[in-house]
Amino acid sequence: MAVLGAHVDQADPIAAATARGAQLAQIFIGDPQAFKGHAVGYPDGPAALKQAAQEAGITLVVHAPYVINVATTNNRIRIPSRKMLQQQVSLAAEIGAIGVVVHGGHVLASDDDAAGFDNWRKCVDRLEAEVPIFIENTAGGDKAMARGVEKVARLWDAIGGAEGGDQVGFCLDTCHAYAGGEELAGLVDRVRAVTGRIDLVHANDSRDAFNSGADRHANLGQGSLPGDDLVELVRQAGAPVVVETPGGAAEHTADLDWLRERLG
To answer: What global pTM score does this model have?
Structure first.
């Protein structure tokens, strides 16, 4: 049985995971929409959170802030993004997290995509990866670095040339894939053919239609995504699973129960 979890509030992720019957808690460290003020907010600090998670048998994952974009050619965003990603990795190591999920980012409309892939190579080359990063596929944007398997393949070719590139992981988001134009059937094999790995699955239904480009999550079984294909993807991936669906403990518990029932 896969390890199942949810994205929860950072204040007390152990209590939040327990309330959902989850074995894993994904959290932000600090404001996901800001470049400053990131610190572990758990009472008594990161060491206490690490110990509490170990005692409760809860796996921790950190989701990096949404503002991070290490691919961009805009120095005013790329340079702070690199610094923040390093900070997030270091904080994740302090709390004993298994990795840091980070979006693939994008380049400017006037840029060649190659510049963004190379910026990722430079970022990975300079990163002191105390825990691995898990690059997540995204739903929209013609200039996105990780929309669709074809773009992910180019990204992996680029980071493969960096020191530590072989340690970079991949987070597969089902809503992002479907909304980004990738059928879920056979997707695990297509992703592994280019990355060699899937380290985490974000199991989210999609509010919007296939290939809509819209990053709008729905609760499992309540969106447009084929439920049987989602379940089979989770089964084939064999990786820890996080639901990032709307609502709180009750809704997440229902989503996790929906998944458990179908996984058997």
So the answer is: 0.97
Give dist(CA 173, CA 177) in Å, integer.
Answer: 6
Alpha-carbon gap, residue 181 to 164, rounded angstroms: 30
Helix axes 187-195, 227-237, angle to 10 degrees: 40
Q: How many domains is the chain built from?
A: 1
Question: CA 226, 228, 230, 232 torsion: positive or negative?
Answer: negative
Range of the domain at 39: 4-263
Q: What is the pLDDT of residues 60-86, one digit of tens each?
A: 999 999 999 999 999 999 999 999 999
- Beta partners for residue 90, in sequence order: none
Distance CA 103, CA 133 (A): 10
Distance of CA 217 to the CA centre of its chain: 14
CATH of the domain at 206: 3.20.20.150
Residue 137 corresponds to which tokens in the numbers above? 């596929």
